[in-house]
Specification:
CATH architecture: 3-Layer(aba) Sandwich
Number of helices: 7
CATH topology: Rossmann fold
Bound molecules: S-adenosylmethionine
Order of helices and strands: HHHEEHEEHEHHEE
Shape: globular
Radius of gyration: 16 Å
Strand order of the largest sheet: 3-2-1-4-5-7-6
Number of domains: 1
Number of strands: 7
Largest sheet: 7 strands, mixed
């Protein structure tokens, strides 16, 4: 890991991606009006108890929380954070929003009943460290509810994702299309109790790189 990046993680900050933050809602607009409604209702709408959202972006999940006053949303990118705060303010959603990276969560052990992640484990710099932090802050009976695009389950798709990752990372605010998040979750000490796989059509670029997508629930072992 580069020294500057290590320092950023230690300090919990991030320089940010101004252009990506500015176009993110536009890029997602069609999906948000169609299938992401059902996805966010299922992943976010079933959050229970004290809830942490990691990498909340512009706050697209905020309207779906059943009890926003029990939610702490975190986001390290200052440009995303600004938009998330504005959305919460304009919509009158009373959740707490703080600047933090998933690799260094500023909360005591066992402080949340639910952790929410939507398209975040593809973007974090150190996915193993982020998963260890999520596990640390989750209570033993708690659950991680997630929706992520993940590594292809067949060779050619995975190879295409590996090939495009450097460019995609640069274009997509640090996103890695080739992460095998379910496997990493199990390695980090989670038991996946639900996993639904979605393959968006058509299977051509750029959709090819962000499929399959998985909706899941994982619990600490
Ligand atoms: C593709 S966006 C998803 C945003 C939001 N979760 C949503 O559902 O629309 C990925 C988000 O992860 C954030 N992110 C990047 N690195 C992160 C890190 N190390 N810890 C937490 N979030 C991070 C980005 O700033 C961005 O907001």
């Amino acid at each position: 890991m580069m020294v500057g990046l290590k320092l950023e993680i230690e300090q919990g900050v991030m320089e940010g991606h101004k252009c990506f933050a500015a176009i993110y809602d536009f890029l997602m607009a069609r999906a948000e009006k169609t299938f992401m409604r059902a996805i966010r209702s299922e992943v976010v709408g079933k959050a229970r108890g004290r809830t942490l959202e990691i990498g909340c972006g512009t706050g697209a999940s905020f309207p779906y929380y059943p009890d926003p006053s029990a939610v702490t949303a975190t986001e390290p990118d200052p440009f995303m954070l600004q938009r998330a705060r504005r959305r919460a303010r304009l919509m009158g959603i009373p959740l707490t929003i703080i600047r933090a990276r998933a690799e260094l969560l500023p909360f005591p052990d066992s402080s949340f009943d639910t952790v929410i992640s939507v398209f975040v484990f593809c973007s974090v710099q150190d996915v193993r460290r982020s998963l260890a932090e999520v596990r640390r802050v989750l209570r033993s009976h708690g659950e991680l509810r997630f929706y992520e695009h993940v590594r292809y389950d067949h060779r050619w798709g995975a190879l295409a994702q590996d090939a495009v990752t450097p460019l995609w990372q640069w274009l997509g605010g640090g996103c890695h299309p080739n992460r095998d998040t379910p496997r990493l979750l199990e390695e980090a000490g989670f038991r996946i109790v639900r996993l639904e796989v979605f393959k968006l059509d058509p299977p051509v670029p750029p959709l090819l790189f962000i499929r399959p997508q998985v909706l899941g629930v994982a619990r600490p072992v």
